[in-house]
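Hi C.,

You asked whether I'd gotten around to modeling the 379-residue construct. I have! Everything is below, sequence then structure, no commentary in between.
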Amino acid sequence: MKKKIALLGSTGSIGRQTLAVVDALELEVCALSARSDIKLLEKQARQYGPSIVAVYEENAARDLAVRLGDTSVVVVSGMNGLIEAATVKEAETVVTAVMGTVGLLPTLAAIEGKKRIALANKETLVCAGELVMRAADIHGAEILPVDSEHSAIFQCLLGGKSYEKILLTASGGPFRGKTAVELDNMTSRDALRHPNWSMGAKITVDSATLMNKGLEFIEAMHLYNARPDQIEILVHPQSIVHSMVEFSDHTVIAQLSAPDMRLPIQYALTYPGRCPSLTPTLNLAEIGALTFERPDLKTFKCLRLALDTARIPGTACAVMNAANEAAVSLFLQDRIPFNDIYECAALALDRIENIINPSVEDILASDAEARKIVTEYFG
């Protein structure tokens, strides 16, 4: 019997790569979702024949319903629609590849439905890691990471759950080695030229600021119950070692592969099994050398801010994440310079009260307030 999945965020970079894996593994797609790209979503719906398709923007949903009027596909909209897609009865696994905190409520709903979560939406854990991991424990839902680094850590820990340190690798992004002065002159076009990975615009900019690695640091704390002092970030420009784990005897286990997101996506969908993948074979002799260095926290202030914020319990991480999202959006519109992305996040953290032991409502309210501050002061 074919495995059945629901895919949230099917028109984005991770979503499209997930569908390539679906094709290779011959899986069944029960639900799809997108924010507003109904042209591509219609094509996907006709190809994969899901029972339900969710469109976050309601006007776009109405348009898609007309387009798919000759099919049996049910079109739903808004947050309730995303939750309905995430909890579709027949799906065993929910791939959450939507961007931003919009993924939080659908992920929690899928957890309550005891689904396996293939988690590609890092904001869910950054903003509400304690709530999400507690819910997964209560409902017996399995969370499998899709990020290449967290998939690597997960695989390294299969040989033992007890560890001393997580070594989280970073490519260094397109601006590795540049000074703060040079960074201020970098344009959105410059930031989108990642040397190793093909990703969506937002995550590519996060890679350029190194904020992405800070967010992954916070994710690792929740996924692996790690203290901040148990996680070390290493810049690894070749992006071949996706992360490592050090054990009590000082043995270090690493996961290596070509930089291709289809591999961690596939592993999350086939775990505990492994299948032939679309990823090319790793030729270490051809690569020649693997190098590692410490990140420049003085120049890349976003990473330093994220590491500091990771140590603050409550809504601080949600505020930082939301402010960063809003700032990246402004940068991609060429409305603020590159270094102002940090300034936006720092301002929001300074202006918004941190709430300890927050509810989901507290987290979403802090998220909205952070976006408003960034838009008012920088937009």
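If it helps when you're writing up: The chain has 17 helices and eleven strands.

Thanks,
B.
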